[in-house]
Amino acid sequence: MNFEDLKLAPAIVQAVQEQGYTAPTPIQEQAIPAVLAGHDLLAGAQTGTGKTAGFTLPMLHRLSESAAAPAKGAPRPIRALVLAPTRELAAQVEESVRAYGKHLKLKSTVIFGGVGMNPQIERIKKGIDILVATPGRLLDLAGQGHVDLSAVEILVLDEADRMLDMGFIHDVKKVLALLPEQKQSLLFSATFSDDIRALAASLLKNPLSIQVTPPNTTVERIRQVIYPVGRARKKEVLAHLISQNNWSQVLVFTRTKYGANHVAEYLTKHGIKAMALHGNKSQSARTQALADFKSGELRALVATDIAARGIDIDELPHVVNYEIPNVPEDYVHRIGRTGRAGASGEAASLVCMDEEGFMHEIEKFTRQQIPVQILEGFGPEEGEKAEPIAMGRQTLWGGLGKPPGREVMQAAARAARQEMMQRIRDNKAVLAQRKSAAKPAQSFAAKVAEDASPAEGAENSGEQAAAPAAAGKPAPGKSRNRYRNRRSGESRSAQPRPKADRPARDSDDDDDRLPRHINPLQTNLHGRRNNNGPSHGAPGQPDPMRTSIDMMSRNKKRRDGGDGFKGYR
């Protein structure tokens, strides 16, 4: 089958061929005819299967066929809305819309947070047919009256599972309330959960259901491998793998923003050019890092799960799980960055004893046994045992066997909190040093002379101050105006204020700050997992109990007798 057989407009087929595509992928073969026929759609497809074109191409076709000239002097109404969970994914989708629709007269734009609103507002005012947006920025602009969604004909929720995991369910519902009742709705998701099915039931009307791959499986073309390592050797192992195997492009996943920064710095110091990608980076920094990684200027990109959504790199060869996720679905999303659209790839997981239980849950979830490869000299230290993993808001048990008592878990949380506070103090000290170095030098003697100098023409400073005081007047040298508002530019010093006095808000130095209401000693000991299926806690939130204490205790024995990975010790 080719794209002409799908009965798409010739202008769209031409644009697709100019992008180098000749035959549709399985998800495109099934989704495009369904969307062209006007059906609501619930589609299950992993990332990298061509699902973006699966909804973009038929959406462009339907809009081009029903295009009507707006009233004279009125802007184009927004007729299609695509919601995406992250900035990167939203930008990628809109780029695809422009590429496939370049021979059509349709207009599109993308809006997301982290950048100024005014340019986005101006583009919307000029009139657009297709709007790609993240939920937060869309609600901001809609609340200010800059976005009118009353004419939307087609709604697409892309990567809906991740949108719910990130807590956007309430924002999504608010957006749905702004849309007309009569519309075509398409929901795409890499994995299906109870929350996804509930959302689909409330949004879709008599939908067709398409599932190209089973919901809990990983792409077969991805070679997966587990490297058992010592807890303190992970950075060393990562640098070793990249250097020894001469990997030119590798995406590394960490559990935290601080971890991403730390790993990127380590790799760079050891001759592997790397950069961190996470939510505390400004949008311009994230865009630049992604561009450098795609061009090959960066050899490694170290990212958190949320920041990596939307990374679309053709033939990305290697993905490394530097830290194992405690939610198995995240593992599927991570390794889906490689092996895209028929290409092959490799996903390596660096597993220490603290994470063996997480890995065991992943194998159960994906219904496969991942091969283990031993790296001589990089295994755990003699006598090393699994320890709790403290993540600020909660303490997780990811090891095999029975978890330690509550006291041990809380002690781990306290230690992690102390370590985090020490990092914050260290960061503040560094900032203070930079601030001090940036200020113009001024000797102490000069300051004293400036403060003590009498008014011009006075012969005796004591007499000068005494006379006005006797009359009940302030001394000329002590006028209140001497400390003028700094905004007026008339401060004590003639020197301008240095620009470096206040650090930028998107600095990486506040990665570890916690909301005041969060109890850093909270653990997941009191949680329970539903044996009938995955529990997802609060709606739209990832389930912190995915690898709960009870599940770990029930799975003491691994396939080789409960002593960890085969050949591990």
TrEMBL record:
Listed Low complexity bias regions: 465-478
Domain Helicase C-terminal span(s) in chain numbering: 233-386
InterPro entries documented for this protein: DEAD/DEAH_box_helicase_dom, DEAD/DEAH_RhlB, DEAD_box_RNA_helicase, DEAD_helicase_RhlE, Helicase_ATP-bd, Helicase_C-like, P-loop_NTPase, RNA-helicase_DEAD-box_CS
Presence of the UniProt keyword Cytoplasm in the record: yes
Predominant subcellular localization, coarse grouping: cytoplasm
Domain Helicase ATP-binding: 32-210
GO molecular function: ATP binding; hydrolase activity; nucleic acid binding; RNA helicase activity
GO biological process: response to temperature stimulus; ribosome assembly
Region feature Disordered, mapped onto this chain: 442-569
Any one GO cellular component localisation term in the record: cytosol
Subcellular localization, as worded in the UniProt entry: Cytoplasm
Top enzyme class: hydrolase
Motif (Q motif): 1-29
Gene3D superfamilies in UniProt: P-loop containing nucleotide triphosphate hydrolases
SUPFAM superfamilies to which the protein is assigned, alphabetical: P-loop containing nucleoside triphosphate hydrolases
Keywords: ATP-binding, Cytoplasm, Helicase, Hydrolase, Nucleotide-binding, Ribosome biogenesis
Annotated DEAD-box RNA helicase Q domain residues: 1-29
UniProt biased composition (Polar residues): 520-534
Catalyzed reaction equations: ATP + H2O = ADP + phosphate + H(+)
UniProt-listed Enzyme Commission number(s): 3.6.4.13
Family (UniProt): Belongs to the DEAD box helicase family. RhlE subfamily.
Known role: DEAD-box RNA helicase involved in ribosome assembly. Has RNA-dependent ATPase activity and unwinds double-stranded RNA.
Protein name: ATP-dependent RNA helicase RhlE
Biological source species: Ottowia cancrivicina
Chain's gene name: rhlE
